[in-house]
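Researcher: Going back to the complex we discussed earlier. I've cleaned up the inputs and rechecked each line, so this should be the final set. Can you rerun the prediction on the complete assembly and write out the structure?
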Amino acid sequence: KQEVTQIPAALSVPEGENLVLNCSFTDSAIYNLQWFRQDPGKGLTSLLLIQSSQREQTSGRLNASLDKSSGRSTLYIAASQPGDSATYLCAGVGNQFYFGTGTSLTVIP
Amino acid sequence: GAGVSQSPSNKVTEKGKDVELRCDPISGHTALYWYRQSLGQGLEFLIYFQGNSAPDKSGLPSDRFSAERTGGSVSTLTIQRTQQEDSAVYLCASSLHSLGNTGELFFGEGSRLTVL
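Model: Rerun complete. Updated structure for the full complex:
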Protein backbone atom coordinates (compact mmCIF):
# COMPACT_ATOMS: atom_id res chain seq x y z
CA LYS A 1 0.00 0.00 0.00
CA GLN A 2 1.26 3.45 -0.90
CA GLU A 3 2.33 5.50 2.13
CA VAL A 4 2.96 9.24 1.87
CA THR A 5 5.08 11.05 4.42
CA GLN A 6 5.37 14.79 4.76
CA ILE A 7 8.19 16.34 6.71
CA PRO A 8 8.12 18.41 8.80
CA ALA A 9 4.65 17.99 10.28
CA ALA A 10 4.76 21.60 11.47
CA LEU A 11 6.98 24.54 10.70
CA SER A 12 7.15 28.08 12.04
CA VAL A 13 9.30 30.68 10.29
CA PRO A 14 9.72 34.46 10.35
CA GLU A 15 8.38 36.41 7.42
CA GLY A 16 10.75 36.63 4.47
CA GLU A 17 12.42 33.27 4.92
CA ASN A 18 12.72 30.73 2.13
CA LEU A 19 11.54 27.27 3.07
CA VAL A 20 11.26 23.71 1.76
CA LEU A 21 8.51 21.21 2.43
CA ASN A 22 9.14 17.54 1.75
CA CYS A 23 6.94 14.73 0.53
CA SER A 24 7.99 11.10 0.02
CA PHE A 25 6.25 7.98 -1.25
CA THR A 26 6.95 4.37 -0.41
CA ASP A 27 6.04 3.30 -3.94
CA SER A 28 7.63 5.53 -6.60
CA ALA A 29 5.17 4.29 -9.27
CA ILE A 30 3.10 7.45 -9.43
CA TYR A 31 1.94 9.31 -12.52
CA ASN A 32 1.45 12.86 -11.31
CA LEU A 33 2.18 14.84 -8.17
CA GLN A 34 -0.01 17.66 -6.96
CA TRP A 35 0.52 20.14 -4.11
CA PHE A 36 -2.39 21.74 -2.27
CA ARG A 37 -2.90 24.22 0.52
CA GLN A 38 -5.71 24.01 3.03
CA ASP A 39 -6.81 26.91 5.18
CA PRO A 40 -8.64 26.15 8.44
CA GLY A 41 -12.22 25.06 7.83
CA LYS A 42 -11.79 25.17 4.08
CA GLY A 43 -11.34 22.74 1.22
CA LEU A 44 -8.08 22.11 -0.60
CA THR A 45 -6.75 24.62 -3.10
CA SER A 46 -4.54 23.32 -5.90
CA LEU A 47 -1.13 24.97 -6.03
CA LEU A 48 0.95 23.04 -8.55
CA LEU A 49 0.58 19.90 -10.65
CA ILE A 50 3.64 18.03 -11.91
CA GLN A 51 2.57 15.67 -14.67
CA SER A 52 4.31 12.41 -15.47
CA SER A 53 6.53 13.88 -18.19
CA GLN A 54 7.64 16.81 -16.05
CA ARG A 55 10.15 17.21 -13.24
CA GLU A 56 9.11 20.54 -11.81
CA GLN A 57 6.57 23.33 -11.93
CA THR A 58 6.70 26.96 -10.87
CA SER A 59 4.01 29.44 -9.94
CA GLY A 60 5.04 32.78 -8.56
CA ARG A 61 7.00 32.22 -5.35
CA LEU A 62 6.32 28.48 -5.40
CA ASN A 63 8.42 25.82 -7.05
CA ALA A 64 7.69 22.10 -6.84
CA SER A 65 9.95 19.33 -8.04
CA LEU A 66 9.49 15.60 -8.40
CA ASP A 67 12.11 12.85 -8.43
CA LYS A 68 10.21 9.74 -9.44
CA SER A 69 13.20 7.46 -9.09
CA SER A 70 13.37 8.18 -5.37
CA GLY A 71 9.67 8.88 -4.84
CA ARG A 72 10.32 12.34 -3.42
CA SER A 73 8.87 15.78 -4.05
CA THR A 74 9.72 19.15 -2.58
CA LEU A 75 7.77 22.39 -2.44
CA TYR A 76 9.95 25.48 -2.23
CA ILE A 77 8.37 28.72 -1.01
CA ALA A 78 10.44 31.85 -1.54
CA ALA A 79 10.21 34.98 0.59
CA SER A 80 7.45 33.61 2.82
CA GLN A 81 4.56 35.85 3.85
CA PRO A 82 2.01 35.62 6.71
CA GLY A 83 -0.64 34.82 4.08
CA ASP A 84 1.25 31.62 3.30
CA SER A 85 0.23 30.26 6.70
CA ALA A 86 -1.81 27.12 6.02
CA THR A 87 -1.49 23.35 5.84
CA TYR A 88 0.25 22.07 2.72
CA LEU A 89 -0.58 18.62 1.37
CA CYS A 90 0.98 16.61 -1.40
CA ALA A 91 -0.86 13.97 -3.39
CA GLY A 92 0.57 11.36 -5.70
CA VAL A 93 -1.52 9.70 -8.36
CA GLY A 94 -1.20 5.97 -8.82
CA ASN A 95 -4.34 3.86 -8.99
CA GLN A 96 -5.90 6.49 -6.77
CA PHE A 97 -4.82 9.77 -5.22
CA TYR A 98 -2.56 9.21 -2.23
CA PHE A 99 -2.42 12.10 0.22
CA GLY A 100 0.11 12.97 2.85
CA THR A 101 -1.05 14.22 6.26
CA GLY A 102 0.32 17.67 5.58
CA THR A 103 2.76 20.24 6.88
CA SER A 104 1.27 23.00 9.01
CA LEU A 105 3.09 26.23 8.17
CA THR A 106 3.02 29.38 10.27
CA VAL A 107 4.75 32.49 8.96
CA ILE A 108 5.33 35.00 11.73
CA PRO A 109 5.09 38.69 10.79
CA GLY B 1 -20.04 25.55 -12.81
CA ALA B 2 -16.92 27.55 -12.05
CA GLY B 3 -15.81 25.27 -9.26
CA VAL B 4 -16.81 22.19 -7.29
CA SER B 5 -19.90 22.98 -5.27
CA GLN B 6 -20.95 21.09 -2.16
CA SER B 7 -24.07 21.31 -0.05
CA PRO B 8 -24.92 21.65 2.72
CA SER B 9 -21.83 23.39 4.01
CA ASN B 10 -22.79 22.44 7.55
CA LYS B 11 -25.12 19.72 8.80
CA VAL B 12 -25.96 18.90 12.39
CA THR B 13 -27.98 15.75 12.90
CA GLU B 14 -29.00 13.38 15.64
CA LYS B 15 -27.54 9.93 15.97
CA GLY B 16 -29.53 7.42 13.96
CA LYS B 17 -30.79 9.86 11.33
CA ASP B 18 -29.93 9.59 7.62
CA VAL B 19 -28.08 12.39 5.83
CA GLU B 20 -27.43 13.23 2.19
CA LEU B 21 -24.49 15.27 1.02
CA ARG B 22 -24.40 16.67 -2.48
CA CYS B 23 -21.53 17.42 -4.83
CA ASP B 24 -21.76 19.29 -8.11
CA PRO B 25 -18.43 18.88 -9.96
CA ILE B 26 -16.84 21.23 -12.46
CA SER B 27 -18.73 21.04 -15.73
CA GLY B 28 -17.20 18.45 -18.06
CA HIS B 29 -15.18 16.66 -15.39
CA THR B 30 -15.66 12.93 -15.81
CA ALA B 31 -14.01 11.81 -12.58
CA LEU B 32 -15.45 12.54 -9.13
CA TYR B 33 -14.05 11.60 -5.72
CA TRP B 34 -15.32 11.65 -2.15
CA TYR B 35 -12.98 11.98 0.81
CA ARG B 36 -13.51 12.29 4.54
CA GLN B 37 -11.36 14.40 6.82
CA SER B 38 -11.74 13.99 10.55
CA LEU B 39 -10.56 16.71 12.93
CA GLY B 40 -6.79 17.05 12.71
CA GLN B 41 -6.49 14.04 10.43
CA GLY B 42 -5.52 13.46 6.84
CA LEU B 43 -7.80 12.70 3.94
CA GLU B 44 -9.52 9.33 3.89
CA PHE B 45 -10.54 8.08 0.44
CA LEU B 46 -14.18 6.95 0.24
CA ILE B 47 -15.21 6.39 -3.37
CA TYR B 48 -14.32 7.29 -6.93
CA PHE B 49 -16.67 7.71 -9.91
CA GLN B 50 -15.79 7.60 -13.57
CA GLY B 51 -18.90 8.88 -15.28
CA ASN B 52 -21.81 7.27 -13.46
CA SER B 53 -19.98 4.11 -12.46
CA ALA B 54 -17.90 3.59 -9.35
CA PRO B 55 -14.83 1.47 -10.18
CA ASP B 56 -13.48 1.89 -6.67
CA LYS B 57 -15.73 1.78 -3.61
CA SER B 58 -13.03 0.37 -1.40
CA GLY B 59 -12.94 3.29 0.99
CA LEU B 60 -16.55 3.26 2.11
CA PRO B 61 -16.30 2.56 5.86
CA SER B 62 -19.45 0.45 6.21
CA ASP B 63 -22.65 -0.53 4.45
CA ARG B 64 -24.30 2.53 6.01
CA PHE B 65 -22.42 4.59 3.43
CA SER B 66 -23.51 4.72 -0.20
CA ALA B 67 -23.02 7.08 -3.11
CA GLU B 68 -24.43 7.56 -6.53
CA ARG B 69 -23.80 9.78 -9.49
CA THR B 70 -26.37 10.59 -12.13
CA GLY B 71 -26.01 12.07 -15.58
CA GLY B 72 -22.24 12.02 -15.19
CA SER B 73 -22.56 15.10 -13.05
CA VAL B 74 -24.05 15.52 -9.56
CA SER B 75 -23.17 13.00 -6.89
CA THR B 76 -24.90 12.26 -3.60
CA LEU B 77 -23.23 10.62 -0.61
CA THR B 78 -25.75 9.07 1.75
CA ILE B 79 -25.03 8.03 5.31
CA GLN B 80 -27.72 5.95 6.95
CA ARG B 81 -28.26 5.63 10.70
CA THR B 82 -25.53 8.13 11.44
CA GLN B 83 -23.13 7.51 14.32
CA GLN B 84 -21.03 10.01 16.25
CA GLU B 85 -17.87 8.67 14.62
CA ASP B 86 -19.27 9.81 11.26
CA SER B 87 -18.68 13.43 12.33
CA ALA B 88 -16.14 14.86 9.90
CA VAL B 89 -15.74 17.11 6.89
CA TYR B 90 -16.75 15.35 3.70
CA LEU B 91 -14.82 16.66 0.72
CA CYS B 92 -15.67 16.18 -2.92
CA ALA B 93 -13.21 16.62 -5.78
CA SER B 94 -13.34 16.32 -9.54
CA SER B 95 -10.86 16.02 -12.38
CA LEU B 96 -11.15 16.17 -16.13
CA HIS B 97 -9.88 12.66 -16.80
CA SER B 98 -9.93 9.27 -15.16
CA LEU B 99 -7.20 7.88 -12.95
CA GLY B 100 -4.22 6.74 -14.98
CA ASN B 101 -4.68 9.65 -17.34
CA THR B 102 -5.51 12.23 -14.79
CA GLY B 103 -5.29 15.94 -14.77
CA GLU B 104 -5.53 18.35 -11.92
CA LEU B 105 -7.75 17.58 -8.96
CA PHE B 106 -10.11 20.32 -7.76
CA PHE B 107 -11.86 20.29 -4.40
CA GLY B 108 -15.05 21.77 -3.06
CA GLU B 109 -15.24 23.56 0.28
CA GLY B 110 -16.61 20.48 2.01
CA SER B 111 -19.66 19.56 4.03
CA ARG B 112 -19.08 19.58 7.78
CA LEU B 113 -21.19 16.87 9.42
CA THR B 114 -21.77 16.84 13.17
CA VAL B 115 -23.64 13.91 14.67
CA LEU B 116 -24.93 14.58 18.18
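Model: Worth noting: The CA atoms of residues 21 and 38 of chain A lie 15 Å apart.
Researcher: Good, that matches what I expected from the previous run.
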